[in-house]
Amino acid sequence: MRGALPLFAFSAFLMVSATQAEADAILTVGASGADYSTISAAVQFADANAGTYYTIQVAAGTYVNDFSVITAAMTIMADPGGPVILDATQSPTNGKAIITTSASATISGLTFENAAVADSNGAGIRDEAGTTSLIIQNDIFINNQEGILAAADSADNISVSGSSFIGNGVDTGGGACPSGGCDHGIYAGAINSLTVTSSLFCGTLAGHDIKSRAASTTITGNQLYDGAANAALGCPAGSSSYAIDLANGGAATISNNQIIQGPATENSTMVSYGEEGLTYLDNSLMVSGNSFSNTGVANATAISDPYCVQVQLQNNSFQGITTPVNPTSCAASVDQAVSEPATLALLGIGFAGLGLARRRKIAA
To answer: Lowest-pLDDT range, 4-13, 40-49, 116-125, 217-226?
Structure first.
């Protein structure tokens, strides 16, 4: 099993990628004077000339049903001066996503809206086997069935930063998922690593804000709303289940996030670790510097840990939380002051609520 990409190596990779993107060829997309009028046409050219690394610069505008399939490494980025909106008013032609990639890609400054397909797997971005690096920077995902959907690939590393995921998912009524499984803000299959930083998740329908089966998952500095609204941020309440679901364990760090649970959630648990079984040799959970707050949900649990991987707790705050870690014996340290009206449960409440875990079909 591959380990997580070391931080210094990943940082070096980002620097090399940025330098490469600046040094190699540029294609422009937009109105008159641009190389292409559609993103998909520029992507097709870059795919056909894989020996050159292309940066595709997209002018402000709305690109309707402009669906792309990436097979060669490239960067797609918005030019300054206005939003670049990729709006799907019909199902993507490949039945998958607005942008589908099987090669390493950096995608920056784009807005993905309304991706939907018959099997409810329609994604803003679909990351398929063969991708070793997907970098998402300052993108927005609104009202897609899936924001980002990544297939299992043990060599794949996904980084998401400065992005927003609003109103993604599918609720077939009363908080129910489609028959084939739930949809999420981000769903990562069994990849090497998922890193999510400085991003917003809210209004998710029926599924989870983030669901990861990665060997290594790092979630830091984000705002995650679980069944709670925030009008100032344009966030509806949604009907989400967990804020974070680390379904198969792995090495996980959850730090410096605001995790807000409201009465529209479908589950009293906010973070779930390993509820579908531990599939990795390296399993660890560090939870530090987070703010967990709950309103309107009885018996709220911050972290569910059914296989009792010792949770390393440092400097978190809990408000309106009945049980910080369930079972409580699985907390390696509890050094938090619990704010009123919360109470700190001294006894675990077993594995209650695991039947509410929202599952996701595996992407092909």
So the answer is: 4-13
